[in-house]
Amino acid sequence: MDGKRAAPGGPGDDEPSPPEASAKHAGGGEDELYGPLELERLRKDDGRTLIVFSRADGRR
Amino acid sequence: MSELRFNELRGEQVVYAIHRQDRTFLPDRADCPLDPTRPGGPATEIPLEAFEIVVFDNRFPSFEAPRGAAEVVVYTDDHDASLGALSLDRVEALMWVWRHRYAELGAREDVEYVYIFENRGVEVGVTLHHPHGQIYGYPFLPPVPALELAADARLDGCAPCALLERERSDGRRLLFENDAVSAFVPEAARWPYEAHLVMREHRPSLLTCRDGELRLLAAALLDLVHGYDALFDRPLPYVMAVHQAPTGAAGHAGHLHLEFYPPLRTAEKLKYLAGSEQGAGTFIGDVLPEEAAEHLRGAIERAG
């Protein structure tokens, strides 16, 4: 993440916090969980970011 | 890198992304850059043989760091699918992907507004048929969300909340509801078959949705898109705009809702933005919103 700003809608905003969905790192720090999703961040040959999202529960 | 210039007469930013002139334009089926990369086949944007949902930086960005972001969201590896053809599980997953990108892009110092959208159909300028949407992280607050904040001030509270209450009370333009979302044609729709999906509770963004609400939003989205395709018995082109709270200096007021702008006024006739719309900024309607809602309710029922 490039900036330092707190995510909007999080603690401190007027609205209640969302259900637990914080990204956490797994394994070597490359795979993450977000809500029902697993995500993997890849770097393309030209430097652009590509994020692969899959349902952690296997449902498609 | 794009260049921003301020149009004084309109009081708005204009973005010049001249590198986009060379972007991929309606490639042959075999050359789709959003397909998976198959063994022996051409390399695409996605170096995987199969995938569910991927997000990547746009190769031809309107915005890029350190002045914003432009991302592509590919909904499926099935080139011939569409948003409406996806399973409820997949569309719910897409809601979580949107939420993830809203949080991550919105946390950046160079992003003032996260805008998720889909252009569907060549009538609205699609250049790739593979089912996908886009996300822009604007380095400024664009005019439409600024107008929504102005509406909040004018109505002395959350404007979408107030308008939702009016629509539910009136009822003539209501399309359907589930436990979290109301769908209606707005009283002063600009497009003939414009429709809005609005969170019934006050939720500034996807981040503030409660357990189960993202699945209900996904279900409502599918119901509406299925109805759209049944309206004229053809895939209906549209622009889908996801409106959420700004993420920068404008504060975090807002109300999550999706606006759909289909450009058709009949099965074959387009609603053009012509003299009045472009030169004076006033939309001239061809279909009354109450009639559009009646047509759409019938189409949603047929599709159901």
What does this structure look like?
The complex is a heterodimer of chains A (60) and B (304). Chain A is mostly beta strands and 60 residues long. Chain A has a domain of 31 residues. Chain A contains no helices and 4 strands. About 33% of the residues of chain A have low confidence. Chain B has 304 residues and is an alpha+beta fold. Chain B has one domain: HIT-like (HIT family, subunit A, 2-Layer Sandwich). Chain B has 6 helices and 11 strands. In chain B, the strands form 2 sheets. In chain B, strands 3-4-6-5-10-11-9-8-7 form a 9-stranded antiparallel beta sheet, with helices on both faces. Chain B is globular, with a radius of gyration of 19 Å. The model of chain B has no long low-confidence stretch (mean pLDDT 95). Classes of the chains: A mainly beta (60), B alpha+beta (304).
Short description:
Chain A has 60 residues and is an all-beta fold. Chain A has no helices and four strands.
- The string of secondary-structure elements of chain B, in order, is EEEEHEEHHEEEHEEHH
* Rg calculated over all Cα atoms of chain B: 19 Å
Most residues in contact: chain pair: A-B, 35 and 47 residues
CA-atom Rg of chain A in angstroms = 14 Å
SSE topology sketch:
The complex is a heterodimer of chains A (60) and B (304).
Chain A: E1 24-26, E2 31-34, E3 37-43, E4 49-55
Antiparallel strand pairs in A: 1-2, 2-3, 3-4
Chain B: E1 3-7, E2 12-16, E3 53-57, E4 69-74, H1 88-106, E5 113-120, E6 132-138, H2 143-155, H3 159-170, E7 174-177, E8 181-184, E9 195-199, H4 213-231, E10 238-243, E11 257-261, H5 275-280, H6 289-303
Antiparallel strand pairs in B: 1-2, 3-4, 4-6, 5-6, 5-10, 7-8, 8-9, 9-11, 10-11
Helix pairs in contact in B: 1-4, 4-6
